[in-house]
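Discussion board: Methods & Data

I've been asked by a reviewer to show the raw model output for two of the constructs in my manuscript, not just the figures. I'm not sure how much to include, so I'm pasting the format here to get opinions. Each protein appears as its amino acid sequence followed by a line of discrete structure tokens. Is this the kind of thing reviewers expect to see in a supplement, or should I convert it first? Here is construct A:
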Amino acid sequence: MVSWEYADDPAFVRLNQWQGTRDIAAYLAVPVVIEFMQTHDWDAVRAQCHERARALRARVAAWYGCPPLSPDTPDWYAQMVSIPLPACAADVLARRLYEERRIEAPIFHWHDRNLMRVSVQGYNTPADLDTLFNALTELLPRAEA
């Protein structure tokens, strides 16, 4: 973010290096965040999130027959995974997921593939991922129209 009193220099780096007043709130919150993660066994939460991402990836692959991009192991992905989708108008599908179901999921065309990026966090429930899967299977056939 460009801050006040930056030098009148059009160079991108110079415009963005000047911070003005530094907000130290994030630094001060670190001890509380560490305590929260320890109290709530965040290693287990991360593992649970990976399992939910893995299960959704497997469901979508089985439904559409699109092979995964990587092996099914935490060595290749953790809580965020790109899931291949069949041919469709990716931008139309992403827009419809949001407008009709209020689901925000990046769907994009990359290297001749359609991909959906799913990020699973501790607050996502299995029902949330079921909602995404059901919406996807209902809207994807219509996304080409």
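Construct B, same format:
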Amino acid sequence: MSKRAVCIISGGMDSALAAQIAKEEGYEIIALHFNYGQRTEKKELESFRKIAEHLDANERYEIDLPFFEQIGASALTDRSIEVPTGGLGEGVPVTYVPFRNGIFLSIASAIAEKHGAEALFIGVVEEDSSGYPDCRESYIRKMQEAVNLGTKEETSIEIKMPLVALKKSQIVKRALELGVPLEYTWSCYRDEERACGICDSCRLRLRGFEEAGAVDPIDYH
């Protein structure tokens, strides 16, 4: 039986690369995407579908999590909180969605157990990210421990985070090397038609391309 991996794919560059790495490692891809009331939900879903198609994913899940809007407390899910555009600051930014990755990984683990998948791929980046606590390697390792304690005895899931120690420029270079369709990816927190170029996520992405000596294929304002 071939080995399977559940890949959480947001539609962004990092998760697209993580899923491509899973494919390179010989896993059958189970592509997983969440609609959680984020500002760019429609665009991210469109990106996910194109990336899943490119990966020739065997199974595809699009899961709606409307309660994130009810919880709010993040500029991504609460329209009354402005997405910051003043550059990358210190501490945890207002774009952090409370315990999002924990919830995503829990659902991904349920899907992995259903399909007998042995790995979960998530595109978290610790070193060069926006300071989200749920992107830390130490946290993901603890989640793996909890997942395996809370599933059947024969279930053994490894949570792989191949990008966790990379800088954004290294991610761009690796994505280009592996033929990730970066023109399908979306990083902007604010807009769906053309990327704003000034939110934290756009800044990180643009800086990554610049440092990698490459041209970002998506449109910006």
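Answer (T.O., handling editor elsewhere):
This is acceptable in a supplement if you add a one-line summary per construct. For B, something like: The chain has a mean pLDDT of 96.
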